[in-house]
Each structure stands twice: as structure tokens, then as C-alpha cells.
């Protein structure tokens, strides 16, 4: 009943220069996708890092979040967004993110995304966050686009896309 | 063409002898033990089901992971999990931190139960508000440790939803060979819900 090893690196992008947009395509044949990023931006302070699917920038995303910056915890929601904020990255520290894109190629359901990230700022600017998101579209995901709210991803930021195939 | 007679004694003479067919070689396994392996996927058929059962789980891995995406016949229904079909006694305990999209997050625990709670955040429709869960079962094949679990689960429905981080344990040292996921609210998992079990090398 076992089908063998099935956690496959699909593509890795290690930025050799400052880059505003990172994209992935050509990832068919898997059940789930996992995007692992360790990224920093070119400015100072913290900026939002965004993910979009299939070049859709309409108000077709929603997200529910749970986070803490070391004092209590907070939950918030954006029910009608034009993108998913998948991290809040710093200009000094590289910040890690795990993005689980579940059943990305099915054509019957909206696409749920589970995200874990840390935001490594200084003091109250540091967050640990989990979020459940949704792309309100039943189309298979064929492209993934990563941007920031301002500035660019800096040289040395890494983005790796893995595919998991179920038996 | 000339032929020669070779006797068994002449072949063995001067060579190492072994009573095993492997003759000292490493056994070949058709299942890769490198990394992360798909064990079984259960996709719910027509009419739905109240219970999903992984049975005869091989003990060759270090950890297990279940990646599930499902709809439920009733939104807000709770989903439970038990090991080795053990639902007697009070061997389970779990705690969690969770959020529902506003205000503060909240925490809770439940001890001396007969199941582990996987999530209370189920969205109902598989189409518009699928529930997802990533469940890690650690050191499941150990015969000397109580078993531990952690999971991240929830759903978002564009204006409603919630998510939680759950951890729990089963106070039993028996190796796990069966995992049952079921509704503890008399709901059913909808058609096309999928539950995939993976084994992780250790």
C-alpha cells in the first residue's frame, strides 16, 4: 500500500540580486505544495510579503490569523483581500515562512492554505503567526507569485517549492 | 564443446559461507526509507462517511503525518482521533491555542478523555469552506513511550472561520498501527474529502 518517497523539491530560487517579484510555475503532478521562504527586503523596518495565485489580483482572498508578539495573542481576519499576506518581513533579518497549499490542483473547491511564519524584528516587531487562508477560486493553481508591499526581496533571499504526492 | 563438472564442495572451498540468502548484504526494501513516504490516501466516496480508518500502518517509519482536506455535513462539528481503536478508559489529553478572527486568541485543555480533538473549526462545505489539518504523530512505533501528537487545523470562509494549534497525547506505550479519524458531533465527512497518511524516516 505504500507508494514510496514523495516529498520532492520542485524549484529553488536564491536571489542573486534584489528582486521585486518571484514566481513559480510548472508544478503539476502533486497533491499538496509547500513553499519555504527565508526572505528579507531591501529597506528598513517591516513590510508585508504577499502571495497571489494564477495572477489573480481581485478581491478573491481571505485569511484568518492567530499571532503573538510575546504578549498575549490576537486573532484577526481579512475577508476580502486582493492578496494573502504570507509574512511580515524585515530589512535586517531573514524571516522564515512555511506555506502549505492544500490540494492545489483540484477543480471542485476553493483553495485552503495553512501558513506558519516568524517575523524577526526587534522587540515588539517580532511575531509568531499561524494563518488559515483561502483563494476563493476552484481552478487549479498553476502559478504562484510573491511580491512585497514596498521595496524588493533582497539578494540572498531563498524560495523553495516542494511537491507532495499522495498515494 | 568441452564441459566441466563443478561440485558443490569445490564452489564452497575457500569462499565465505553463509546460511542466509542475503549473504551479508543489506536487505532491499521496495519502499524508500529516505525522507517522506506516502503510505495511504483515503478519499471519501459517494454518500460520505462518519469514520476514516488507517489500518495496518507499518512500523518502519519514525514519525507519521496526516494531511487532510475535508468537508463536513455540519459546520462547526468537532473532529476526533483515536489510536489502535482505543476509546475506552481515559488515556487521552489535549490542549490548544486558537483564534476565530477577532479579539484575543484563546486556550484550553481537556484531560482524561477517550479521544483526541483534532479541530472544532470545521467549515461544512468542501467547495466553499474546506477544513484542513496537518497532523504529526511522533515516535508512533515506539513500544516504550506514551504517544504524542500535534496539529494545525482550521478553515476560512471569507468572513468566518477559525484555526487552532492542538497538541495531545495518548498515555499508552503500545506501538500505533491504526489511526481513526471521526466526527464526534454525529456529522459525516463529505464526498471527495481526502485524508493522506505519510511516513517520515528517522
Secondary-structure element series of chain A: EEEEEEEEEEEEE
Question: Order of strands across the biggest sheet of chain B?
Answer: 1-12-3-8-9-10-5-6
Q: What number of structural domains do the residues of chain B give?
A: 1
Major pleated sheet of chain B: 8 strands, antiparallel
Major β-sheet profile of chain A = 8 strands, antiparallel
Share in helix of chain B: under 10%
Q: Terminal Cα separation of chain A, in Å?
A: 8 Å
- The helix fraction of chain A, in percent, is under 10%
Number of DSSP helices of chain B? 1
Spatial ordering of strands, largest sheet of chain A: 2-13-4-9-10-11-6-7
The number of E-state strands of chain B comes to 12
Oligomeric state of the chains in view: heterodimer
Which CATH architecture of chain B would you pick? Sandwich
Instruction: Give a count of the beta strands of chain A, DSSP E runs of length 2 or more.
Output: 13
Average of pLDDT of chain A: 93
- CATH class wording of chain A: Mainly Beta
Tally of distinct domains of chain A:
1
Classify the secondary structure makeup of chain B into a structural class: mainly beta
Amino acid at each position: 500500500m505504500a507508494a514510496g518517497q514523495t516529498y520532492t523539491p520542485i524549484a529553488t530560487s536564491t536571489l542573486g540580486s534584489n528582486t521585486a517579484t518571484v514566481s513559480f510555475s510548472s508544478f503539476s503532478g502533486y497533491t499538496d505544495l509547500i513553499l519555504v521562504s527565508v526572505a528579507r527586503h531591501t529597506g528598513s523596518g517591516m513590510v508585508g510579503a504577499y502571495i497571489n495565485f494564477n495572477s489573480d489580483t481581485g478581491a478573491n482572498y481571505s485569511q484568518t490569523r492567530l499571532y503573538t508578539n510575546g504578549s498575549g495573542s490576537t486573532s484577526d481576519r481579512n475577508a476580502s483581500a486582493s492578496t494573502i499576506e504570507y509574512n511580515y518581513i524585515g530589512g535586517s533579518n531573514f524571516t522564515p515562512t512555511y506555506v502549505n497549499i492544500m490540494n492545489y490542483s483540484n477543480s471542485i473547491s476553493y483553495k485552503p492554505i495553512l501558513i506558519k511564519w516568524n517575523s524577526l524584528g526587534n522587540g515588539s516587531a517580532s511575531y509568531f503567526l499561524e494563518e488559515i487562508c483561502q483563494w476563493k477560486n476552484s481552478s487549479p493553481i498553476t502559478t504562484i507569485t510573491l511580491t512585497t508591499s514596498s521595496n524588493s526581496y533582497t539578494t540572498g533571499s531563498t524560495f523553495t517549492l516542494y511537491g507532495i504526492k499522495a498515494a | 564443446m568441452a564441459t566441466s563438472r563443478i561440485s558443490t564442495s569445490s564452489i564452497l572451498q575457500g569462499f565465505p559461507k553463509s546460511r542466509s540468502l542475503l549473504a551479508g548484504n543489506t536487505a532491499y526494501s521496495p519502499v524508500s526509507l529516505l525522507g517522506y513516504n506516502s503510505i495511504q490516501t483515503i478519499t471519501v466516496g459517494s454518500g460520505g462517511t462518519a469514520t476514516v480508518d488507517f489500518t495496518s500502518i507499518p512500523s518502519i517509519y519514525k514519525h507519521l503525518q496526516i494531511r487532510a482536506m475535508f468537508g463536513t455535513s455540519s459546520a462547526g462539528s468537532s473532529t476526533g482521533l483515536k489510536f489502535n481503536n482505543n476509546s475506552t478508559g481515559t488515556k487521552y489529553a489535549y490542549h490548544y491555542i486558537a483564534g476565530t478572527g477577532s479579539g484575543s486568541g484563546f486556550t484550553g485543555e481537556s484531560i482524561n478523555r477517550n479521544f483526541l480533538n483534532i479541530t472544532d473549526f470545521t467549515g461544512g462545505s468542501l467547495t466553499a469552506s474546506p477544513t484542513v489539518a496537518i497532523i504529526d504523530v511522533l515516535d508512533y512505533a515506539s513500544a516504550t513511550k506514551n504517544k504524542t501528537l500535534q496539529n494545525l487545523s482550521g478553515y476560512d470562509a471569507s468572513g468566518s472561520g477559525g484555526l487552532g494549534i492542538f497538541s495531545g497525547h495518548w498515555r499508552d506505550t503500545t506501538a500505533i498501527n491504526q489511526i481513526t479519524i471521526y466526527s464526534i458531533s454525529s456529522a459525516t465527512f463529505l464526498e471527495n474529502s481526502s485524508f493522506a497518511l505519510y511516513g517520515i524516516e528517522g
